[in-house]
Amino acid sequence: MKLNKILFAAALASVIGGSMTSCSESFLDEDLKTQYSTDRFKTQEGLDELVTGAYQKLKFKFNYIWAIECHNMGVDEFTDANNTMPAWNHYSQDLNSSENGANQPMWDNYYGLVEPANIIISNMPQYYNQSSVTYNTRLGEGYFLRAYAYFELVKQFGGVPLKLTPSTSAETYFTRNSEEEIYAQIIADLEEAYRLLPQKGEATGRITKYAAAHFLAKAHLFRASELYSGWNSSYVSTDLDAVIKYGQEVVAAHPLCTNYVELWDYNEPNGANEKVSEVILAAQFSNDEATWGRYGNQMHLYYPSVYQDMAGTKRDISGGREFSYVSATEYTMQVFDRVNDSLFWKSFITCYGANDTNGAPTWTKEDIASGYAPAGAKEGDKRFVAGELGLKYIVNNPGDTRYESYVNDPTQNVLKNGVICNTHTYVRYFKSQAHSWNVSSYTGNYYGIIPHKRSVALSKFRDGYRNSIASQFGTRDAIIARSADDVLMIAEAYIRKGESNYSNAIEWINKLRERAGYAAGEDRSKNVDGGQSYKNNSYCSGKGGGYSADGAIYSDANTYYESNNMEGQETTASTKNAMILSSVEDVYNSSADAPIYTELGCSSNADKMMCFLLNERTRELCGELLRWEDLARTKTLDTRWHKFNDGVSRGIGEFNSSKHYYRPIPQSFLDGITNASGSALSKEEKDALQNPGY
Q: What per-residue string of b and e applies to 170-209 under the rule 16 or more CB within 10 Å gives b?
């Protein structure tokens, strides 16, 4: 598809098709009017509609597998799981200019946002009543949306064609602008948005001054990063100051939630957790089918482990539809202090209920005769029934001697202190098993099953409010920006300013680490996430969570005490003091981070501080579609992929540092445009426009 076609059609599609994909919030309610032409955008009403329609592009990142492919595959946090994607996780030869599963949609959709934004910016001064109370807001939204589109494009593709005026006819001649030019435009647009936008939005989901400030901080931080070291030296100092300035404004206006779980405690659409102070901007989704469009919110599909093929469990609403595209790596398991840091237990699922009594496993004669069955077990008795714990993951450490494989059924059963665990139990480390960061037969979950279908699954996006067991359409809002990211950006800016500013960085990091510690009185064995919303879901009424009559797969338990070998040591004491950093020495000597420093070869204080910062971003933001771009901009993707992603040991592809910090420019674009004389591009001209190596 030609870029001009994308740009020209996007404006009309934003209004004409907007009602098919808009959210249920009042400001997104629209009437379908297929007779519209671009002349409609020369009226105040039409421009209002165009802005509303353009908001739909904010949903794009969360709509389909391009989200997980482009943003969270091929990194240190996750490897591929039950659905393998070698192009993006293993950097195979399939990641090329003709790849159209994610690469092409990224290009098309963000350029599809550029055109309506250009029309808004161009037409507002001419056709909108400038004395209207909404004039500045609508114009500010236009500037923000254009900046957002180009920011997403430059992060993925590097320098791209910069187009700042609406299309009035077919255009075929485009050249690439430099990254420096793209960033200059992004920052200029965001500064205009910051100047024009209100502090508080007219409705939930509207872009505000602080959304502009958040992305100003982020754009300045990206421009100051290592990926652009060939040209950014004159900007770094002022960029870092800007990160601190804008980041502090955002944090003041959007205070952090007191408890991390408040962000993920999803009970129903448009519920309390979607309106917490920490959220700066979120793509708006709901349970209104008329708003879903082709895709809806599909983030809930990517991280779950497979559970419905386990005896005693059947797929239901509360457990999710487990597409299982990614599985956490050993790095992700190890980077958390799992005794003191609540974020691990508030981010991952380790327990599932049983919901199928008839299908539950039974004690066998062999189990009893061997002495491995618990005392009192009888042949043929159900090992567990619906409503009880049916499946659990033990996230233990190497050196744990409690667990051994059960030779009669090693794939689903383990021995604990010589007795068969009564549920399906997956243990990360068996007796005498040595630690390894990255081997071909295991992932970080260490369950020895390829593809990685059994895993400790990320729970942040779980959605028990879908309207059928097979539904791909999630109902919860998708967070685009939250102030915890600003806290970490400020900390990074201080780290980049040099050793004399490390104490300032630690002060900001501690705002998150203090929250990450358990509060006094907090139950460490509980897990709360969006799976619980099945309880309020009318579809599940009388259906046991959407499937069977005898219970839901959702469990509010986790394996904190068993994983940490602390059974019998239950406590409600605070761990906040244990999480607080007293000095830079706590960073350098962190028990969770020091092995990572060693593995990555971090020798200097500066190396350790930046490594710690990136580790802290995992702990706080794991799975939130930021990891690829963070590792790319810091040029740590090469090293971290090789050390922590089993793509390297499985031999399907190979990360090429001269190539893979950028995505390929889509071949369809290169084939569809012309040179200045109007002729189709020659091979040499296409090669000149393509990113190196593709």
A: ebeebebbebbebbbbbbebbbbbbebbbeebeebbbbbb
Which DSSP symbol is given to 371? Answer: T
Question: Of all helices (H) and strands (E), which one includes residue 623?
Answer: none
**Cα–chain center distance at 297:** 12
- Ordered by where they begin, the domains of the chain are 1-65+102-197+664-694 (1.25.40.890)
DSSP class of residue 455 equals -
CA distance 337 to 265: 22
Number of neighbours of residue 407 by Cβ within 10 angstroms:
10
- Amino acid making up residue 198: P
Burial class of residue 614, CB neighbours in 10 A (0-12, 13-18, 19+): buried
> Is residue 529 over pLDDT 90?
yes
Q: How far is the C-alpha of 276 from the C-alpha of 212, rounded, in Å?
A: 19
Q: Which residues contact 539 (CB under 8 A, 6 or more apart)?
A: 317, 466, 467, 468, 546
Number of CB atoms found within 10 A of residue 639's CB: 17
Token pair 């507002």 is found at 124
| DSSP-derived secondary structure letter, 101 | T
DSSP string, 633-654: HTT-HHHHHHHH-THHHHTS--
Q: What is the pLDDT of residue 582?
A: 98
Give the 3-state secondary structure of residue 446: coil
CA dist 499 to 508, 604, 609, Å?
15, 11, 9
Which of 4, 103, 663, 673 lies closest to 686 in space, CA to CA? Answer: 673
Task: Read off the tokens for 511.
Answer: 């705002």
Q: 691: closest CA among 672, 668, 663, 654?
A: 663
Strand 424-427 vs strand 389-394: parallel, antiparallel, or unpaired? parallel
Three-class SS state of 409: coil
Supply 522's token pair: 């907090």
For the chain, counts of helices (H) and of strands (E):
25, 12
Distance from chain centroid for Cα 207: 20
For residues 66 and 628, give the distance between their C-alpha atoms in angstroms, rounded to a whole number: 13
Q: Record the pTM.
A: 0.94
* DSSP bridge partners of 79: 327
Type and span of the H or E element at 52? helix 44-54
- Give residue 31's pLDDT band: very low, low, confident or very high (50, 70, 90): low
The DSSP-derived string for 278-312 is: TEEEEE---S-GGG-TTT-B-GGGTSPPP-TTSTT
State which amino acid sits at residue 80: D
Looking at the chain, the whole-number percentage of residues with pLDDT higher than 90 is 85
Residue 43 is given by DSSP the state S
CB of 344 within 8 A of CB of 377? no
Per-residue pLDDT band for 27 (boundaries 50, 70, 90) equals: very low
- Let me know the angle formed at the C-alpha of 249 by 587 and 630, rounded to the nearest 5 degrees: 50
Residues 6 or more apart in contact with residue 694 via CB below 8 angstroms: 96, 97, 659, 664, 665
Strand ranges in 54-167 using DSSP code E only, listed in sequence order: 78-80
- Give the contacts of 102 (CB within 8 A, at least 6 positions apart): 65, 66, 69, 70, 88
